[in-house]
């Protein structure tokens, strides 16, 4: 069955980016000149998704405004003959059929996905989280959709992470491996490195069969006193087959400040209009830092009498 619908949960409070997110959704923080959430939508559309539902919360209206038409802005751009920018702006509002539903309080990712049950109906669907930006030749979600068509079972996108980062993610207990696809024996939400079954982490991309909704209704509050999608997936893999696909491409965790900065720099370096001036600037910064280190080594140590 074709995967036509996607759920993008954006109801979180963005506490890791305060004070920047006090009055602005973290999903609208720009990566160069596009908000982070637009990269997620573009990945979904490039993977064949036709309809998207955002699970929103309070203070998220700017997301709706961004993907809506802006008649005044379009008229101004047309009058000033800024046709290239006009075309780009018009494409934003016509990328996909976009819908919104309010998550009245942030009860966790599992609850956010459950809010989409009526929209999804009885068909497989995608879930994309906005904290993970994937840059790859073939869109990450498209890689997963192709893998799903080979299994017809729920599948999650994964990547290996450093041991010190294991406690930040849902971690799979992998079974048999077929190319880049693992069977999944179990999942653990944010385990310590001592108890983690592997270092293979869930990367915020899912293709789920609609049976997930029945498991979401069975779970209780888990890590963080929230309804965790990971807990529902654990139930699912006890009763159905569950797979994990090792995603190809660069991944940026923009939920963390250093990940956001890396995404900003590397996305800019991939743009023809920004590559040369930015690279020149970065080379200058690195050279200055190397000179500082050399100068520090040359400072003679003082003898203490």
Give a quick summary of the entry.
This protein has 305 residues and is α/β, with parallel strands linked by helices.
Alpha carbon gap, first and last residue: 81 Å
**Multimerization status:** single chain
Q: If you average the pLDDT, what whole number results?
A: 89
Total number of helices: 11
Radius of gyration: 22 Å
- What composes the largest sheet? 9 strands, mixed
Side by side, the strands of the main sheet go 5-4-1-6-11-8-12-10-9
The percent range for helix content is 25-40%
Low-confidence stretches: none
What would the keywords be for this entry?
globular; 13 strands; two-stranded antiparallel sheet
Topology:
Layout: E1 5-9, E2 30-31, E3 34-35, H1 36-46, E4 51-56, H2 61-66, H3 71-79, H4 83-92, E5 97-102, H5 109-114, H6 117-120, E6 125-128, E7 132-135, H7 140-151, E8 155-160, E9 170-178, E10 181-189, E11 200-208, H8 212-216, H9 229-239, E12 243-246, E13 250-253, H10 257-269, H11 275-298
Parallel strand pairs: 1-4, 1-6, 4-5, 8-12
Antiparallel strand pairs: 2-3, 6-11, 7-13, 8-11, 9-10, 10-12
How would you characterize this protein structure?
There is one protein chain. The chain has 305 residues and is α/β, with parallel strands linked by helices. Helices cover 36% and strands 23% of the residues. The chain contains 11 helices and 13 strands. The chain has helices spanning 36-46, 61-66, 71-79, 83-92, 109-114, 117-120, 140-151, 212-216, 229-239, 257-269, 275-298; strands at 5-9, 30-31, 34-35, 51-56, 97-102, 125-128, 132-135, 155-160, 170-178, 181-189, 200-208, 243-246, 250-253. The strands form 3 sheets. A 9-stranded mixed beta sheet has the order 5-4-1-6-11-8-12-10-9. Strand 2 (30-31) and strand 3 form a beta hairpin. Helix 3 runs antiparallel to helix 4. The longest helix is centred in the last third of the chain and has 24 residues, at 275-298. The protein is globular, with a radius of gyration of 22 Å.
């Amino acid at each position: 069955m074709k995967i036509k619908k996607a759920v993008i949960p954006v109801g979180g409070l963005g506490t890791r980016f305060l004070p920047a997110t006090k009055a602005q959704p973290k999903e609208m923080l720009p990566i160069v000149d596009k908000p982070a959430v637009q990269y997620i939508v573009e990945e979904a559309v490039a993977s064949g998704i036709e309809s998207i539902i955002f699970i929103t919360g309070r203070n998220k209206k700017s997301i709706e405004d961004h993907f809506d038409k802006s008649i005044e802005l379009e008229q101004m751009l047309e009058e000033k003959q800024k046709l290239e920018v006009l075309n780009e702006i018009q494409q934003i509002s016509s990328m996909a059929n976009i819908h919104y539903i309010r998550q009245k309080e942030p009860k966790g990712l599992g609850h956010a996905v459950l809010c989409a049950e009526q929209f999804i109906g009885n068909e497989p669907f995608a879930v994309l989280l906005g904290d993970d930006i994937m840059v790859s030749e073939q869109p990450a979600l498209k890689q997963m959709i192709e893998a799903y068509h080979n299994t017809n079972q729920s599948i999650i996108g994964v990547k290996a992470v450093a041991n010190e980062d294991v406690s930040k993610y849902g971690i799979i207990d992998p079974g048999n491996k077929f190319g880049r696809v693992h069977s999944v024996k179990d999942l653990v939400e944010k385990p310590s490195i001592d108890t983690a079954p592997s270092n293979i982490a869930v990367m915020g991309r899912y293709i789920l069969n609609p049976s997930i909704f029945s498991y979401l209704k069975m779970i209780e509050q888990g890590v963080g006193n929230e309804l965790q999608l990971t807990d529902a997936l654990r139930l699912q893999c006890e009763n159905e087959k569950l797979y994990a696909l090792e995603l190809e491409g660069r991944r940026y965790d923009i939920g963390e400040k250093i990940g956001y900065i890396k995404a900003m720099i590397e996305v800019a370096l991939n743009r023809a209009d920004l590559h040369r001036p930015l690279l020149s600037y970065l080379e200058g910064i690195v050279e200055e830092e190397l000179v500082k280190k050399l100068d520090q080594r040359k400072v003679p140590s003082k003898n203490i009498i």
